[in-house]
């Protein structure tokens, strides 16, 4: 329209003898303009209408982001709560601890609620002082290399950027970590420090739980000192002994439409029958196992390679990512629990939260059967925590058994020692406890309420999406061991995966899975050298890395030195991916292949010994080649020994003192040149 206006201005300064022509031109222009405007308006009107209609389509609704709940402050006021316990949880333990603390509050005349920070706006913490005797507790797990858990990421980001005044906030933090990791309890320490910096008042010291030791004991020890500090601060007293308070009520469904019953789905009902992307923790993809082969040639262990078909899933992954798998418990264990408790496991039931205001309506998807809950939703193989023993004690009809259970759940030194030896070290799961305490026969619904959720298991992906865009490969070893009681305990996921066979009928070949992104990444420039250290199944991500480097080389890219340090017990027993590695070396993709066979000679040889043997070459790659170092596998011993070896190499060839060498390696980590993918 502006250009038409400009044309009109030019017409006004035309000579007089063209006036009649101008008049006719204007009328034509007007007609053209009106037609154009009408056409544009009509087109815009219908185009806009289509745009408006799109959000109403069911397809769009299913992928809409979840709406955050109202303010947790308003919720606390509405329900008369004064203690909020936030949890940053990856495997469910921090959430479990948060629930226990919130239930504790009633003993002191206070009311607590556990809260997922992902569901609320944490900037409201500045308003918590509006509530009398208010307190915020944070149970924060550290994940990966000092990172927040997925559900605490937004809270962590807010804390980093916040300039809020939290001077009215009273708080306490309990961190969950593992001392075998470099950044022990980093998240708990950060939250504790940052809240104080923002002006909040710490009413009890930071608790640091260590999962490599006895996390349950660490939590109980902290908790038994935390509550007296709360009582002193607020001038309140305990109202009596800890009592059993049910959080959920049982509803048995005698006449129910089976299409409304959950059969193992993690989120949406019938999501396994009607799969819709995007796929994540609450909506896993059912991948078909297309290959499941044994990797080792001998020995007692079973090491396996599985391939999952992700065709048509729209799942994307990169080398170094993790695949999460939802396993199922052994059906024989489930059946035995049902027999001991004398229950029909196919009874359809729901456990409904007695607190109607709670965001968590059920402890697991309901309605469902007891069999489904014990198979897909509940952890029945790990030793139960002390709160479970305390709640179960009331159902033991034998006075001695009841006393034993209560003692193990107490904070007394003798009780803690008994719990450690009889439950933790003996690896007694709930079935073993029921078998060894004949008078303990709890109602199955209360047992289902108390048991923690069965968690997804994570595996480093052993393939490259450049080479295998429609498949994800897993390398794993089955876990099986004899306990002090003579029972044989089996790893839930690895034994379940072992029995997954390629099947055209798909009946026993489906694996619920999703991909979790990782920071374990190849260098941006393919010409950068890489040093990979991965004994045992720690080789998994490096198979993906080498595949990708081979693909890059085929594309004509300049690929730097690719050096692998691998270790296993015996050359003729458990040398994983032997043929593949030999082929990569022959093709010139794998520049160096260094293998340590720990038990093929009198003196044990590990990967760190081979690193020392090649120390000059290692230093040259790091110092001159700017090599990236990757370590995958056991965190407790291997990763620590390898790191110490790098300290020695850097100190010797870099002419540095030990503290300087340690600082040098730490800086490599900060720059992303020394990456870890480890487990304990």
TrEMBL record:
The keyword NADP applies. Residues 83-227 form the Flavodoxin-like domain. One of its GO terms (biological process) is response to hormone. It comes from the Eukaryota. Its cofactor is FAD; FMN. SUPFAM superfamilies: Ferredoxin reductase-like, C-terminal NADP-linked domain, Flavoproteins, Riboflavin synthase domain-like. This is NADPH--hemoprotein reductase. It comes from Jacana jacana. The lineage of its organism: Eukaryota, Metazoa, Chordata, Craniata, Vertebrata.
């Amino acid at each position: 329209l502006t250009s038409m206006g400009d044309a009109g201005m030019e017409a006004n300064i035309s000579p007089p003898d063209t006036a009649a022509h101008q008049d006719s031109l204007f009328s034509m222009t007007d007609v053209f303009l009106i037609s154009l405007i009408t056409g544009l308006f009509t087109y815009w009107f219908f185009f806009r209408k289509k745009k408006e209609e799109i959000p109403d389509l069911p397809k769009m609704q299913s992928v809409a982001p979840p709406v955050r709940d109202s303010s947790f402050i308003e919720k606390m006021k509405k329900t008369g709560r004064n203690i909020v316990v936030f949890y940053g949880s990856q495997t469910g333990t921090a959430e479990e601890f948060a629930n226990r603390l919130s239930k504790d509050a009633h003993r002191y005349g206070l009311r607590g609620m556990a809260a997922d920070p992902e569901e609320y706006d944490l900037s409201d913490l500045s308003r918590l002082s509006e509530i009398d005797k208010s307190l915020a507790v944070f149970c924060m797990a550290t994940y990966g290399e000092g990172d927040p858990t997925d559900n605490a990421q937004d809270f962590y980001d807010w804390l980093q950027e916040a300039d809020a005044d939290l001077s009215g906030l009273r708080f306490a933090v309990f961190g969950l970590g593992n001392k075998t990791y470099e950044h022990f309890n980093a998240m708990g320490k950060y939250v504790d420090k940052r809240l104080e910096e923002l002006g909040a008042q710490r009413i009890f010291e930071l608790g640091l739980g260590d999962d490599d030791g006895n996390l349950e004991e660490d939590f109980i020890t902290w908790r038994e000192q935390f509550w007296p500090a709360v009582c002193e601060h607020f001038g309140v007293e305990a109202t009596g002994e800890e009592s059993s308070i049910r959080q959920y009520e049982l509803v048995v469904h005698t006449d129910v439409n089976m299409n409304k019953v959950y059969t193992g789905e993690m989120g949406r009902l019938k999501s396994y029958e009607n799969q819709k992307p995007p796929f994540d923790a609450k909506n896993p993809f059912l991948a078909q196992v297309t290959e499941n082969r044994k990797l080792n040639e001998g020995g007692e262990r079973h090491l396996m390679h599985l391939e999952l078909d992700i065709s048509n899933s729209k799942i994307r992954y990169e080398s170094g990512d993790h695949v999460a798998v939802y396993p199922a418990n052994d059906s024989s264990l489930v059946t035995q629990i049902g027999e001991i408790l004398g229950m029909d496991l196919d009874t359809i039931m729901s456990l409904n939260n007695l607190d109607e205001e709670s965001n968590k309506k059920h402890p697991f998807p309901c309605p469902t059967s007891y069999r489904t809950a014990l198979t897909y939703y509940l952890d029945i193989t790990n030793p139960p925590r002390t709160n479970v023993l305390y709640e179960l004690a009331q159902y033991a009809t034998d006075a001695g058994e009841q006393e034993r259970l209560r003692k193990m759940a107490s904070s007394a030194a003798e009780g803690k020692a008994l719990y450690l030896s009889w439950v933790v070290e003996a690896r007694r799961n709930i079935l073993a406890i029921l078998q060894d305490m004949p008078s303990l026969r709890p109602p199955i619904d209360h047992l289902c309420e108390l048991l923690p959720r069965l968690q997804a298991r994570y595996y480093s992906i052993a393939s490259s999406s450049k080479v295998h865009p429609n498949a994800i490969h897993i390398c794993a070893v089955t876990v099986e061991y004899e306990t002090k009681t003579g029972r044989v305990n089996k790893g839930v996921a690895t034994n379940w995966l072992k029995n997954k066979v390629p099947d055209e009928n798909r009946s026993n070949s489906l694996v619920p899975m999703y991909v979790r992104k990782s920071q374990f990444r190849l260098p941006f420039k393919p010409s950068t050298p890489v040093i990979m250290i991965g004994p045992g199944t720690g080789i998994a991500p490096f198979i993906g890395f080498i595949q990708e480097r081979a693909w890059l080389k085929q594309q004509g890219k300049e690929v730097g030195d690719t050096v692998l340090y691998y270790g296993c017990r015996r050359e003729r027993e458990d040398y994983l991916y032997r043929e593949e590695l030999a082929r990569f070396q022959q093709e010139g993709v794998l520049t160096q292949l260094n293998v340590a066979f720990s038990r093929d000679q009198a003196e044990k040889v590990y990967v760190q010994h081979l690193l020392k043997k090649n120390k000059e070459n290692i230093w040259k790659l790091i110092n001159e080649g700017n090599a990236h170092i990757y370590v995958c596998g056991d965190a407790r011993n291997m990763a620590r020994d390898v790191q110490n070896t790098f300290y020695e190499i850097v100190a010797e060839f870099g002419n540095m003192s030990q503290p300087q060498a340690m600082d040098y390696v730490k800086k490599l980590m900060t720059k992303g040149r020394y990456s870890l993918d480890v487990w304990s």
